User: Fold these one by one.
Assistant:
Number 1:
Amino acid sequence: MCCSLRFVLVSIFTLLQPIITLRIATSLAWIEHTPQPYAIKNFYKGSTAATLTSGGVANLASNPQDFELAANAETQGLKQYANHKNVRLIYIVCEVAYRIVADKRKGITKLADLKGKKIGTFSGTSASVFVHNMMATVGVKDSEYTIKSGNVCMKAPCASDTLPSQLKAGSIDAFGIWEPAVELGADAIGSNAILFQNASIYREVYSLYSTTDALNNPAKRKDIVEFVRALNKTLDVFANKPKENGVYDYVAKEVGMDAPVVESVWVDHKWSGTWGNDLIDFIVEEDKYLAGTDKRSATSRKDLEKFLDRSIIDEL
Ligand SMILES: *[C@@H]1O[C@H](CO)[C@@H](O)[C@H](O)[C@H]1NC(C)=O
Ligand SMILES: *[C@@H]1O[C@H](CO)[C@@H](O)[C@H](O)[C@H]1NC(C)=O
């Protein structure tokens, strides 16, 4: 015998309940995601609770019945949009000008010197698009350097399979990825580090996504607007008053970093919210590149214009 009648009845009742939360799929590991828990804790006033689940835009695209929102880099958004035209980018949480850190002892004094070198990154992510874009601007083709994989590190001391440790050990010559791994890699080799960054060549556009399914449901839409409103209040705190509000400590605790490292990479994170007219050109170009690496056809500009949906921002 396992269950009391009361337990069975409660269980059945629970199963029959309609879904009563705003469900958000997001990686819980990175700095970029932290405005979401902060917004839920401090500002969100929706009619239902908001819950964060580990995941991303792929979960939203494949299971629109299980999630109302997701957060991820634009790279993952574009990959999903190619096959799921119901996905919409509705808000920008954060834009991050990624950096490449290289070891000067390997004869690297400018970006073009990375030709023929071993560069650490994650294939298939925003980081590999970043490395590609950076190298392309100095005329170095993908085939003219070697991509090496490795793990990221959030806090020193970094394990030996992480990119900062591989740079220190000399098994890679450089690496490019999201923070704080680059900061920790630069720390690991001290004055031998040289950094490359250019936000107009590549920046991660870490965005909030929804689906037309959720956006066309009036009850869900109301809570989505409330959540974005809460995020917008959060971005004001993150951008303008982080120190006064203990944000460096908050973020450090959320993602397992040291607060001084959070503070030193803060400048690389732009808490944008909305976007300018240049974003469409940026994603059209990026989608062309991703279409090649993913062996699919590029999404048309007309469809990408639909992907960028300002209608929730307009309701704030
Ligand atoms: C960034 O890249 C753009 C486009 O290639 C270039 O015009 C600009 O000078 C670069 N900025 C820096 C600081 O290198
Ligand atoms: C968000 O809040 C700021 C104030 O911090 C405001 O200027 C802005 O227009 C709001 N809306 C969006 C979409 O960012």
Number 2:
Amino acid sequence: MSDETPARPAPRVGLVSLGCPKALVDSERILSRLRAEGYEFSRKYQGADVVIVNTCGFLDSAKAESLAAIGEAMAENGRVIVTGCMGAEPDAILARFPNVLAVTGPQQYEQVVAAVHQAAAPAHDPFLDLVPPQGIRLTPRHYAYLKISEGCSNRCSFCIIPHLRGDLVSRPAAEVLREAEQLVKAGVKELLVISQDTSAYGLDLKYAPSPFHDREVRAKFLDLARELGSLGAWVRLHYVYPYPHVDEVIALMAEGKVLPYLDIPFQHAAPNVLKAMKRPAAQEKTLERIKRWREICPNLAIRSSFIVGFPGESEDDFAFLLDWLKAAELDRVGCFKFEPVAGAAANALPDQVPDEVKAQRHRRLMETQQAISAKLLKRKVGSRQKVIIDAVTATGATGRSAADAPEIDGTVHVAARRPLKVGEIVTVKIERADAYDLHGSVVGY
Ligand code: SF4
């Protein structure tokens, strides 16, 4: 019998990650830290010593989902730490679940990790436990989200993110670039740049430069996009507002440095609704701007989201929005019915729109956009598109073109003569289109 004390098994942590890609990035950071300290992860509640629930508190429906997830984790495991956006309202959580071990707010990584230490002390020497230098990612290996800033300095009247997450805090350019470089070295083929307001990147830092390799890189949207574009991966920009300086980034798209894709949450088009929403860049002439962007980069794909039934939205305002959509010909559109979020200024606005009118406008908008989307996709039949492979199927593969972000946009169904690999980028000849997806065959590897 050996008289060596057997090593204590590593504690296991479970994680439930709800909400947007930004919350997913927070979850990845927490897991990376814990992995570095020797924790193991459990996919089942029963196998976990403690469960972290990363919540979303943006809409009331998201809060309800978060509370349900906490309830499930409490029932199945009973040792639960709550973090994320809803963690900014500890009273609401503790009133329902007084026995949760800890409640921490968004981006409070240190507090989450400290709470995990208390619940289940680390078993390993952190110096012996190697975390891959690119950290732990919850997205498939071939794409990764890259968060360039936290918080938001806008004050949209329907949103409580600035209240939950504070004003804009940008990461220095060199820090973002080092992370991006590690990701690419680890096999990532597509970087998805996210923040609450990507076009405002660096404003808080007064565009201060930071040293990256042999050069100084300014914390500026254009400079960062150019540097990211030189790393050899696809670069996709999310949450950009239509400010004039975005024109310069469109030129990078035309040069092929970053993907010709812009995710711009316009939310509405009627000037008085935009004003009531207090949207950033509400004064910009967006149709002219889009036209100009397409002159610079003809294959630019634009995705956006809209809110219908915002307080005060008249039938005329809504008709304005539909006309605007027909003129703008956006490639991808998401639509939400206005939902009051506890604490948002918009809740106190007069002329709330009845639910049945919201539902009817939602349907009309989606029908209008479906026709636009089908027309735009049909134009692609016969063209050749670069496609990144997401999943291999029995008959070929599914992937995405430059116009499709993962999870929110369409899919390209690909037939191929030889087996394809996830993450591979191939050239596909488009043979058929339906309302949202494309179908084609590989013509180049
Ligand atoms: S830009 Fe507006 S909607 Fe987006 S996070 Fe900031 S305040 Fe909220």
